[in-house]
Write a structure and sequence with these properties.
Blueprint: H1 3-8, E1 16-23, E2 30-36
Antiparallel strand pairs: 1-2
Length: 43
């Protein structure tokens, strides 16, 4: 997910792994991407 989505879920208790900056097809510029840390997800 992008840092924008990460910021929107602040306070949810989710933790994120930084996946670095990437160029996305069809999207200008580079984007810093994050993945949800699966150990922080409650079921």
């Amino acid at each position: 997910m992008s840092s924008t989505v990460k910021d929107l879920v602040a306070g949810s208790g989710l933790r994120f792994d930084d996946r670095g900056s990437h160029t996305l097809k069809g999207v200008p510029d580079e984007w810093r991407l994050f993945a949800v840390d699966p150990t922080s997800v409650r079921t």
